[in-house]
Write a structure and sequence with these properties.
- The protein has 24 helices and 22 strands.
- It is of the alpha+beta class and 677 residues long.
- A 6-stranded mixed beta sheet has the order 14-18-19-17-16-15. A 5-stranded mixed beta sheet has the order 6-8-9-11-10. A 5-stranded mixed beta sheet has the order 20-12-13-22-21.
- Helix 1 packs antiparallel against helix 2, helix 1 packs antiparallel against helix 4 and helix 3 packs parallel to helix 5.
- The chain is flat, with a radius of gyration of 32 Å.
- It starts with 9 loop residues before the first helix and ends with a helix.
Length: 677
């Protein structure tokens, strides 16, 4: 409706705009490889058109102006009047970057006025031929009068998708008392059959009965004229219906349906939604198509609400554990069955909420093709990016946190890993390097790998830099293995770059990535072969909220260790504990297992009662295994991870806390940090 408050749509608009820009990025990358692919160019035009309608509807004029110029440039190309050149592709990418900056500005400040677009719009206009665009309608019917330019474009778009466009004029009887109700019923019936492009008069006038006895509805539909007439004529108090054909399909419908893939279909749904919003602002009708009805079965939910729901589920898990403990202590057998049922229900709720928070890793992977394209162009390198397993799902919180570390790993591969084409050819490789990003589920976690076929980590250079920075002594250097030298790249401030650039060289790289991964309860490994390439493996938990943990006792305190980090538990006889280089160790199936007294690390005093065997938890930190000596193994339990707050969150070795069934608090151990100590 005219003058309505559109702020309620802002969140949906920003999400849709970001999705559209990401989609446009992918499409432009495809066009850059094949500039003759008209199907992709048509898809880019449709996405740009959708974005223009959305921004105009929401009142963001700068964004609307830029997308309009972008759309005009693409319109010339798709009609064969112009071709895309290399400079044009760069200009289009720059436009997308500017539009993304506008989306960010709107998200932060509520408007897009801080972003300058004049030079960009001018450049896009200059790229367009001065030839006037002829206004031709597809098919033999005449151009409909009284339509705005954007409405004509919608008719063009509907026709190109194999839809017919009709102007339906409805005459009500003289005796009709509730004209607004009859008009609503007609429009509602037509909404079920296609996309409403326009109503004359506008919807607010129809609702307020500001019309005589007739009104018009423009509809894009796959239904026939006879079916439309039949559907409308079933409504009472209608005297006459006149239907005029104002647009014809550009190609045979069957051919078009075969050529339009699923992505196109989803874009059309978005387009329908935006037409609906646009129509509301202009007093026109809100449209719904059959596709839109299907999409309305999904609901966007604010992540904050899901966080709150997950917290409530966590409280439910804690409450259940406490009730189970009390029932066990009281030996109340009659509670067994209802408690078992409660356990199943709460587990199902927990699983459902966890799944609700899951999003595919494509959420972050989709930004990488553009990143690789820009960096490889800047550094004059040829790189083929391969992405696998983008449907693998992770908790939204983990996804949000891991994006930047992965971006750094890719930048690292491009800068330090992949060689220049001449160097690769000289070393017997193909001129084009390969970076492969893959994700897959393993056990209760997800592994993300970043592989490149570059020259790998030069351990001699690493050794030299480490000696220069006095990170190691010459004696240590002479004794270090290749694998140990590779681990030096994780030291704070370490960099093998000789100069600081926009891409790397500041020494805030791999150590920050490793720290971030470990703060998420994950593990980080690097394997490199000089001259062959580097493989980085990031192992992440599926969720950060509720995890399965091993409870252990150290003296009188209970601690939790995530099962993600636990390899196994063993009993070690005191006679089997030896000392190697001053460190206690034992043999585990022929391999040396370093032992660490958890009580000593945590500063807990333990009385030596002369026990013969020690319970040991074998944990994995990177490629290394360490046996942690504890006082007692309690068992597995689902725990709800609680933050320690900003004052204690930096405590080394502690990842958080949980509430046990008896109401007591147990600290959750950060295995990676403890092993480092």
């Amino acid at each position: 409706m005219a003058g309505m408050d559109l702020s309620q749509y802002l969140g949906a608009f920003l999400d849709e705009a970001s999705d559209n820009l990401l989609h446009l990025d992918d499409l432009l990358l495809a066009v850059e490889k094949n500039q003759e692919d008209m199907e992709v160019i048509n898809e880019i035009f449709r996405s740009a058109h959708t974005l223009k309608g959305m921004s105009a509807t929401m009142g963001f004029e700068r964004m609307s102006s830029l997308t309009h110029a972008l759309e005009d440039r693409l319109d010339k190309v798709r009609k064969g009047e112009n071709t895309l050149k290399s400079n044009d592709i760069d200009l289009l990418f720059k436009s997308l970057d500017t539009l993304q900056s506008m989306v960010d500005a709107i998200r932060n400040d509520g408007n897009d006025t801080s972003i300058s677009i004049d030079e960009l719009v001018q450049a896009l206009r200059e790229a367009i031929s001065d030839e006037p665009q002829k206004d031709t309608f597809l098919g033999s019917d005449s151009k409909p009068a009284g339509l705005e330019s954007h409405e004509e474009e919608w008719i063009h778009e509907a026709s190109s998708l194999g839809m017919d466009v009709f102007k339906v004029k409805v005459f009500l009887t003289q005796e009709c008392l509730l004209k607004a109700a009859r008009a609503y019923m007609v429009v509602n019936r037509l909404e079920e059959m296609g996309d409403i492009i326009k109503t004359t008069p506008p919807v607010d006038d129809l609702e307020n009965e500001k019309f005589d006895r007739s009104f018009e509805v423009y509809i894009a539909t796959h239904s026939s004229q006879d079916k439309i007439e039949e559907a409308v004529s079933r409504i009472s108090e209608i005297e006459k219906i006149e239907i005029e054909h104002v647009g014809a399909p550009q190609v045979e419908r069957e051919k078009n349906e075969n050529s339009v893939d699923q992505d196109h279909a989803s874009q059309n749904e978005v387009s329908s939604e935006n037409k609906a919003l646009h129509s509301e602002k202009n007093g026109n009708n809100v449209s719904k198509s059959a596709n839109h009805k299907k999409s309305s079965q999904t609901v966007r939910v604010d992540i904050g609400r899901l966080d709150k729901l997950m917290n409530l589920v966590g409280e439910l898990v804690i409450g259940r554990a406490r009730i189970e403990r009390l029932v066990q202590e009281a030996r109340l057998r009659e509670f067994d069955e209802p408690l078992s049922q409660l356990g199943r229900i709460s587990s199902d709720i927990q699983e459902m909420v966890t799944k609700l928070r899951m999003v595919p890793v494509s959420f972050i992977f989709d930004r990488f093709p553009r990143l690789v394209r820009d960096l490889s162009k800047t550094m004059k390198k040829k790189i083929d990016l391969r992405i696998e397993g983008q449907d693998t799902e992770l908790d939204r919180t983990v996804i949000d946190e891991i994006g930047d570390p992965l971006v750094h790993l890719i930048r690292n591969s491009i800068d330090h890993g992949i060689e220049l084409p001449e160097a690769r050819l000289k070393n017997g490789k193909e001129a084009t390097g390969t970076i492969c990003i893959s994700a897959y589920q393993e056990g209760s976690g997800v592994i993300i790998e970043v592989d490149d076929d570059g020259h790998g980590i030069d351990t001699d250079k690493v050794r030299k830099k480490a000696l220069e920075k006095a990170l190691i002594t010459p004696e240590q250097s002479s004794e270090m293995t290749e694998e140990e030298l590779v681990q030096l790249v994780f030291l704070p401030g370490f960099s093998t770059s000789d100069a600081v650039t926009d891409i790397s060289g500041r020494g805030v790289g791999m150590d920050a990535v490793k720290t971030k991964v470990e703060s998420l309860g994950g593990q980080f490994e690097v394997a490199s072969e000089h001259g062959k390439g580097t493989r980085v493996l990031v192992r992440l938990p599926l969720t950060l909220a509720i995890v399965l943990a091993l409870l252990v006792k150290v003296e009188n305190e209970i601690y939790a260790i995530s099962l993600e980090n636990v390899e196994e538990t063993i009993l070690v006889h005191k006679n089997d504990i030896k000392t190697m280089h001053g460190i206690p160790a034992t043999l585990l199936r022929g391999d040396v297992l370093p032992l660490s007294d958890l009580a000593s690390i945590l500063g807990t005093s333990v009385e030596d009662d002369g026990q013969e065997e020690y319970p040991v938890v074998v944990v994995k930190a990177g490629r290394n295994k360490v046996g942690m000596i504890v006082s007692e193994l309690i068992g597995q339990q689902e725990i709800v991870i609680k933050s320690l707050g900003k004052f204690l969150s930096k405590t080394k070795g502690i990842a958080g806390a949980t509430i046990l069934g008896d109401g007591n608090v147990a600290l959750i151990l950060d295995v990676a940090s403890l092993c480092a100590r």
